[in-house]
């Protein structure tokens, strides 16, 4: 299967939903007033304090119809308690290349997120 994240046919979303595993109901958490631009192919890592850290991925500019890899130092945060988005700029002493298709995991001490792999190619062939 080939994924073309730069295609005119691709639609990226910035909606946020919650699925209750007990009641089996979906809830729309989206608040368009502070939601980030639609994004795809980012990792999401849940922290013990209820914040979700989104790293990497691509955005599609609505007016230019152009897809752009997002800087790895531009970190999106969603607070599941206050239902609010924020952005922070991380720091690095080396170049962390923008990417999609990477994986992320929180370390057992909850102090670090480890990223692995990915690609900076927007046309990516995925094998299943």
TrEMBL record:
Keywords: Kelch repeat, Repeat
Coiled coil: none
Signal peptide (residue range): none
InterPro entries on file: Gal_Oxase/kelch_b-propeller (IPR011043), Kelch-typ_b-propeller (IPR015915)
PANTHER family assigned: ACYL-COA-BINDING DOMAIN-CONTAINING PROTEIN 5, FIBRONECTIN TYPE-III DOMAIN-CONTAINING PROTEIN
Protein name, as recorded: Galactose oxidase
Organism for this UniProt entry: Gigaspora rosea
């Amino acid at each position: 299967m080939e994924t073309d994240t730069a295609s005119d046919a691709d639609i990226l979303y910035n909606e946020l939903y919650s699925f209750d595993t007990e009641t089996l109901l979906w809830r729309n958490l989206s608040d368009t007033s502070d939601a980030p631009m639609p994004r795809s192919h980012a990792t999401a890592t849940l922290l013990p304090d209820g914040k979700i850290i989104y790293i990497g991925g691509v955005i599609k500019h609505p007016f230019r119809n152009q897809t752009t890899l997002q800087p790895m130092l531009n970190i999106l945060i969603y607070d599941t308690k206050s239902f609010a988005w924020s952005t922070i700029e991380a720091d690095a002493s080396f170049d962390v290349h923008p990417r999609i298709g990477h994986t992320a995991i929180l370390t057992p001490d909850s102090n670090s997120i480890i990223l692995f792999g990915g690609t900076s190619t927007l046309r990516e062939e995925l094998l299943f």
